[in-house]
Structures are given as structure tokens and as C-alpha cells.
Amino acid sequence: MSYDPDWLALREGADAAARAAELLDPLRAALPPDEPLVIWDLGCGTGSLGRWLSGRLRGPQHWILQDRDPALLDLARASAYTTADGLPATVETRAGDLAGLRASDLVGASLVTASALLDVLTAAEIETIAAAAGCPALLTLSVVGRVRLTPSEPLDAVFAAAFDAHQRRGGRLGPDAVTAAIKAFGRRGATVVTRPSPWRLGPGQSALTEAWLRGWVGAAVEQDPDLAGIADGYLERRLAECAAGRLSAEVHHLDLLAIPGGTS
């Protein structure tokens, strides 16, 4: 699965505002205090998580950016990553699928992290990450199947259900991914903490809301073609409300911090 860089750029600000900053203190406490940090960013996209997280952790830092899309890796590599100490972080990239990830790859890692990744993975891929990560893992912005549009209308639930089914296609876990990850890390003795990280989209985020609506409805129709007859009217109404500044949306996510043998 690959993502449009324009979509990733559009959502970066909302992602940064949504991430659960209260997980940062326990994360910092779990990191090695007196050695450079080696941070793996799985499914890094254009590097938005690294741009957010690097400045919230001490240096020195070395980031290993992994993604299956070489074009996204090129964009991520070109980013500037600066630590909380004001030091430039060093960066390398690794092209490849998560299915090939092994514990031997992560030897020496201080932290494994990812953003908006868990919900597009299968149970086997989540098990792979949990088995390979012998260090803290911070996995952010996983969808949990809860969307609230204001004002509401009855068709919201219809499209939400079809979207959730689309998220689960092909063995992907979609809204069930966080629960699976909690169990996978827990079976390996980790302490797991989750915190909500919802997008809260209002008139100031109309461009993102419009793009999200189009993708949300489009995925629902792809999953259930019977919705095609009502989708155009529904989307037209919602986009008109968005353009007029009358629509707000809450798209719920969870952030997960797993600490091997740690305490919350």
C-alpha cells in the first residue's frame, strides 16, 4: 500500500496536534539515558513522525526510516530532523515490507515507532513487530472505528460501518489493530499504555476535512457498491456544510506505548 505525498502533507498538522503528548514522559524515562538513540520509524511515509518526535527527545539521535515506497523514502530522507538539544539527527533509509522485519534487524534499536500504521496491518504483521521490538515502541494514530460528524445525520453510521469493513479487507485488522497490538506486546511481557489521539477538524481544517470525507465515502462505496446510489447526495451535502464552515468531525485514534518489562 502506498500513499499520496500530498495527502500526507495535508494531514501532517492534524496528526501533530492529535498525538498523545502525555506518553512522552514515560517514553523518555524508558529510553537509555547515556547513549545515542537509534530510532526505527516503520512505514515512515514522508517522515512526518520523525519531524514531530525528534525535537521532543534528547540527542544524539540516529533515525532509520523504513517504507516500501522509494519515492516516499526520498522525501523523508530530505527532511531536517533536529533533537531537543538542537542537534541535527542522522538519517538512513531502508526500503522493504514489514513482513521481512526480523529481530536481528532491530538489534541496537532504542525505540521503534510508527504513525497511522497499525490499522493497515494484518495480525501476523503486528506479531512480527511485537516479536522483533526488544525496546520501547511508540505506535501512534491508529483508527479505532469511531467517527462523529456535527451536525449528524442517519447516514453517517451507514458509511462508517462500510468504511470499517473496508479497513478490515484482505485480513487487515483496521479498527481492531490496537487491541491486537496490546495483546501481542503483552504476551511478550511489555507494559502497554494507550491514550486517545483524535483528529478534531473544524472550519480551520476545511481542506483536510474535504479530502478525508472524499476518501472516507469513497472507501465505503468501494466496500459496499450498493451505497453508490446515495453516496453522491450524501457527499454533496457534507461538502457544502464543510465549505460553509458548518461541519466539524472527530476521527478517533489511539496512541500506544509498549515498554518491555517496564512500568506505567
Walkthrough of the structure:
With 264 residues, this protein is α/β, with parallel strands linked by helices. It has a domain at 5-144 and 171-199 and 253-260: 3-Layer(aba) Sandwich (Rossmann fold). Helix content is 39%, strand content 23%. It contains nine helices and eight strands. The chain has helices at residues 5-18, 24-30, 48-53, 70-77, 123-132, 155-167, 177-187, 206-223, 228-243; strands spanning 37-42, 61-67, 90-95, 111-115, 137-150, 190-196, 199-201, 248-260. Strands 1, 2, 3, 4, 5, 6, 7 and 8 form an eight-stranded mixed beta sheet that branches. Helix 4 (70-77) links the parallel strand 2 and strand 3 (90-95). Helix 5 runs parallel beside helix 7 (177-187) and helix 6 (155-167) crosses helix 8 (206-223). The model has no long low-confidence stretch (mean pLDDT 95).
- Give the class from helix and strand content and strand pairing: alpha/beta
Shape: globular
**What top-tier CATH class of the domain at 5-144 and 171-199 and 253-260 fits best?**
Alpha Beta
Going by CATH, the homologous superfamily of the domain at 5-144 and 171-199 and 253-260 would be: Vaccinia Virus protein VP39
Report the total helices: 9
Q: Got a strand count? A: 8
> Could you tell me the strand content as a percent range?
15-25%
Query: What is the CA–CA distance across the termini?
Result: 34 Å
Helix content: 25-40%
Mean pLDDT, all residues: 95
Kindly report the CATH topology of the domain at 5-144 and 171-199 and 253-260: Rossmann fold
- In CATH, the architecture of the domain at 5-144 and 171-199 and 253-260 is 3-Layer(aba) Sandwich
Q: What does the main sheet amount to?
A: 8 strands, mixed
Radius of gyration: 19 Å
**Element-by-element helix/strand order:** HHEHEHEEHEHHEEHHE
Stretches where pLDDT is under 50 for at least 5 consecutive residues are none
